[in-house]
Amino acid sequence: MRLVILGGGESGIGTAILGKKKGYDVFVSDFGKIKENYKEVLIINEIAWEEEKHTEDLILNADLVMKSPGIPDKSPVVKRLKEKGVPVLSEIEFAAPFTNATIIGITGSNGKTTTTMLTHHLLKSAGLNVGLGGNIGKSFAWQVADNNYDSYVLELSSFQLDGIVNFKPHIAIITNISPDHLDRYEYKYENYIDSKFRITKNQTEEDYLIYDADDEAITEWFKTHTTKAKLIPFSLTKILSEGAYIKNNKMEISINQEEFTMDTEHIALEGKHNMKNAMAATSVAKLMQIRKSTIRESLSNFQGVEHRLEKVLKIQNVQYINDSKATNVNATFFALDSMNTPTVWIVGGVDKGNDYNELMSLVREKVKAIICLGVDNKKIIDAFGNVVDMMVEVDNMNDAVIMAQRLTEKGDTVLLSPACASFDLFENYEDRGNQFKQAVKNL
Fold it and tell me: Has the keyword Disulfide bond been applied to this entry (predicted)?
């Protein structure tokens, strides 16, 4: 069996290692450059590869193709493969049959990384032999090849879910859905929503779907679609007989006739959206039979996720917060919503079809100045130019942070929450967040 892998990044290399271990004839092809450390892995494992090109003769003879999530379906080589009837899968789909582990799959437009990390933290603290992967950390395929975990917590992007045929998690979570990556879905929101719900398409009556019952897109989907999975909703506004909710500053969870309660003030994560992430993760812990005392302890000592509402430093009584991971409007909505002091907001980057109107009331209420950090800031200036007293454009992170310091007074907050992708001025959101943290430390 010839396995061709398109893309020599983390998921590609992981799949190559697993494929080789399972006896496939493996070839890796990357249209860009392959990182040196990945090349070394390929060479050590005697796996054939090419970079900066896709040689059709070496690709179209595949029995099976694993496509990296970053490569769109409309790329010429993928189209040719599909015309020839060659199956094109995602890494998750390829790797899943090679493990008997219990899989917890987590998707959503926002909150999925925090929920994934928190779920993993809850299970690991309870002594479970559990792996963490998918969209974060070491690729799922690589771990299936090298480790023997009893369960996996996987963060799954819509791009990863698009390549699913038979994959099914035992427990699925949809944290929320808001418009994102619409450029990959023909600018049709419903296509993106359907993509997220692929996480539950193969689930049976034995499986569970945990979801945000306050989310409009999710609620609408359930009006015309069904899943066989047992439903476990969570909500900030409703009281649920089965599921998780907040009442009188207590998180209350009822699943399979078992109750769990905890005062929200003891939960380490702050902000309404994080209560949702905590409810989702705790629902998993309850399904996995984790002891209540362990859950309480883990929720109170969780450190949070880098680049997600990360407190960097307080300088002259001004708090600097790194929320570089906010690459869409909905994520920035949560960030602004959790600000309790006058805020200088650093925003901008590559816009994925953003509608800034959703932020208007929060900006009026909380933002005293806006610093635009992007190559093209026209939409942001048009949206908020008349709403805030001060609007500045900069083209690098150092200037953004220096300008922010000038615009603040004691008791203010400086928030980097871009609502956009980072590829115009930075390598990725991590690079953007790290540059912000460094610039703050240099003040």
Answer: no
Q: Cα 389 to chain center, whole Å?
A: 34
DSSP letter for each residue of 1-12: -EEEEE--SHHH
The response to whether 99 counts as a known ligand-binding position is: no
Q: Consult the annotation and say whether 112 binds a ligand.
A: yes
Q: What is the DSSP letter of 392?
A: E
115 is known to lie in a ligand binding site: no
Side by side, the strands of the sheet bearing 88-89 are 48-51, 25-30, 2-6, 64-67, 88-89
**What is the per-residue pLDDT across 366-382, written as a single tens digit (0 to 9) for each?**
999 999 998 889 999 99
Do the annotations mark residue 110 as ligand-binding? yes
Domain boundary among 248, 280, 301: 301
Residues 113 and 68 in one domain: no
* Of 194, 223, 198, 193, residue with least CA distance to 209: 198
**Is the pLDDT at 304 greater than 90, yes or no?**
no
For residues 85 and 97, membership in a common domain is answered with no
Alpha-carbon torsion 404, 405, 410, 415, what sign? positive
Q: Is 286 annotated as a binding residue?
A: no
Domain edge (last residue) among 30, 65, 89: 89
User: Does 363 score more than 90 pLDDT?
Assistant: yes
Indicate whether 328 and 393 sit together in one domain: yes
Q: Is-contact 180 328, C-beta < 8 A? A: yes
Q: Residue 35 pLDDT > 80, yes or no?
A: yes
142-156, pLDDT tens digit by residue? 999 999 999 999 999
Residues in Cβ contact with 75 at an 8 Å cutoff, skipping those fewer than 6 apart: none
Q: What confidence tier does 186 reach under pLDDT thresholds 50, 70, 90?
A: low
Q: Are residues 49 and 150 in the same domain?
A: no
Kindly state whether residues 182 and 250 are assigned to the same domain: yes
Q: Answer for the pair 373, 398: CB distance below 8 angstroms, yes or no.
A: no
pLDDT band at residue 120, thresholds of 50, 70 and 90? very high
Is 108 among the annotated ligand-binding positions?
A: yes
Q: How many domains does the chain have?
A: 3
- In whole angstroms, give the CA distance from residue 367 to residue 347: 12
Question: How far, in Å, CA of 240 to CA of 254, rounded?
Answer: 8
pLDDT band per the 50, 70, 90 thresholds, residue 383: very high
CATH number at residue 388: 3.90.190.20
Dihedral in degrees, nearest 10, Cα atoms 189, 192, 193, 196: -170
User: Is 109 annotated as belonging to a binding site?
Assistant: yes
Q: What is the pLDDT of the chain when averaged over all its residues? A: 93
